[in-house]
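#help-structures
NK: newbie question, is this the right format to request a structure? protein is Protein-glutamate methylesterase/protein-glutamine glutaminase
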Amino acid sequence: MMLQAPCRVLIVDDSAVVRQVLTEILSADPAIEVVGTAADPLLAREKIKRLNPDVLTLDVEMPRMDGLAFLENLMRLHPLPVVMVSSLTERGADTTLQALALGAVDFVSKPKLDVARGLDAYAEEIRSKVKMAARSRVRAISPALRRPPQQAASPAHIGFRTTDRLIAIGASAGGTEALRVVLEAMPADAPAIVMTQHLPASFSTAFAERLDRHSAMSVREASDGEAILPGHAYLPAGGRHLRVIRDGARWRCRVDDGVPVNLHKPAVDVLFRSVAASAGANAIGAILTGMGEDGARGLLEMKQAGAATLAQDEASSVVWGMPGSAVRLGAADEVLALDRIAERLLSLARS
């Protein structure tokens, strides 16, 4: 049996401490080889040409050249899997979401205090995300994605006026852009949507605002107990689970601080299982790009409860972990390319 060659990583960060710590963390895994480090994007550019790495880790806030400008050039000229290393500040969250829009595969958060020890606690996450990035699909981003969002056109009304349909969507790596693509295609009066995307607590507000700018629907962070209404899409507030509960003839959001499920909080399985129990055959589930298996069993429970279920296909997924697991479990009725999912959700909601 041939042993797989380790994935070759170039670390780009202006902090010598972070470069050293990341080198130690990544080199501890025999499946990863750190081929070099660079203190800024201009040095990184030379090293990419010379060393031809498989994956780049990139600090979002860099001297001499903006990390985003560097990433945009890179994805245009030399597309490469990139894992962003970002700060957990509000500005860091916004910059990271822009980086994911430009084609970065995923990100890890830099702890605010005691960076060295904090990053050490993240060692397993960093290693798994770098290895996942090496296997991911990277595309040069089209100029359309770089333009600021236009005001959503007033879509044709398609007669959704009741809470009799509920759409539940789960995603992880690659999902910040996949969810944008789906929500962008939804009309203002689409059925209510509940969503879970794996994100750290401090990113959820910036993410909800970003999706809201791109969609004719009203996208918001869910508050505990609020009614779930058509034309609205709900995300859990940072680091909390979102469940759907039935209250007489309507559904409400339950946002709680329960234990992580599948190592995640929020977890897609938590959302999907609650939708299976509360909405049954009135629901439609979709599992999008992401690493791991979270959501696969929950989608199966939705299907068993009578819901229609979709999974994103491998070709359009950044990482076919979660949707692939759902397909292997037999949880997905249909497997579709990302650009067909919104249209199919709407047609299932009509039927």
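mod (FA): yep, format's fine, and the tokens are attached above. Residues 166-350 form a domain with the Rossmann fold fold (CATH 3.40.50.180).
NK: thank you!
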